Amino acid sequence: MGLLLKIEWLKIKKYPAFWWMLAIVMLTYPSINYMFYNIYNEFTQGKEMTNNIAKMLLGNPFAFPETFHTVAYFSSFFVLLPAILVIMLITNEYNYRTHKQNIIDGWSRKDFMASKLIDVAIISFVVMTVYMLVALGFGIYADPENMGRIAEQLHYIPMFYLQTFAQLTVAFLLGYLVKKAFIALGIFLFYYLVVENILVAYLKYKKIAITRFLPIEVSDNILVAPAFSGNFGKDAKEGYELALTLVGEQVVLTCVYTLIIWLICFKVHSKRDLA
Predict the structure, then answer these.
(1) What is the CA radius of gyration of the chain?
(2) pLDDT in tens, 233-274
(3) Contact 164, 60 (CB under 8 A)
(4) Prediction pTM value
(5) Rounded distance, CA 22 to CA 131, Å?
(6) Which of 161, 166, 150, 167 is CA-nearest to residue 68?
């Protein structure tokens, strides 16, 4: 496994799309959070009564320890960026027939699929690292005097990693089964942006409580909205508290879904024609 990890990292870091993805993520994550930080400042800075009320309701979501929660939530909107890379990586294996060359070079089918799992894990780790640095930066910038509380919500770091890894796994599955980058990417984007959102809205409208079991929604619910979202009335508070109570179940479900997808990939690849 250590050798596969080294091989895949050497392969990924030579891939121009990886560095483009990393650059875009490094620009996007700070930018989206800075936009919301400015909105927060517009509502809370000033001596008017409305400013004081807003500050009381919102607190400081970008200071420690809330920064890890807030930045994770807003950054998770852009999992599409690394998903594009994951789809390109697996479909290129078939476009350039490197999957066959690996077998010729002595890899087993299991080794090949394990290497793809490592690819997704590496990309998820890189994305998580960017998120962590952004969260730390905002925490220090927003309220450096609150550094003593830095460790209170560090659990959002592995939760962000799990959500990213799970959703990139879905993207990988599509790329692996379809083999064509543009088709797989189109299906993923259409489902991610349109189909599942329509399903969630429709099922909530009909009060059918199964939305949290949908493929993307199951991991989306790991990262609930920031804490201040529960401060806007009784219904908002109850909704926020309910979402928090379900996080543990969503983590388990996400792990189960992700494991099932990888087992399917390993099983299919053990029988798939390499032509």
Answers:
(1) 21
(2) 778 788 888 889 999 999 999 999 999 999 999 999 988 877
(3) no
(4) 0.93
(5) 11
(6) 150
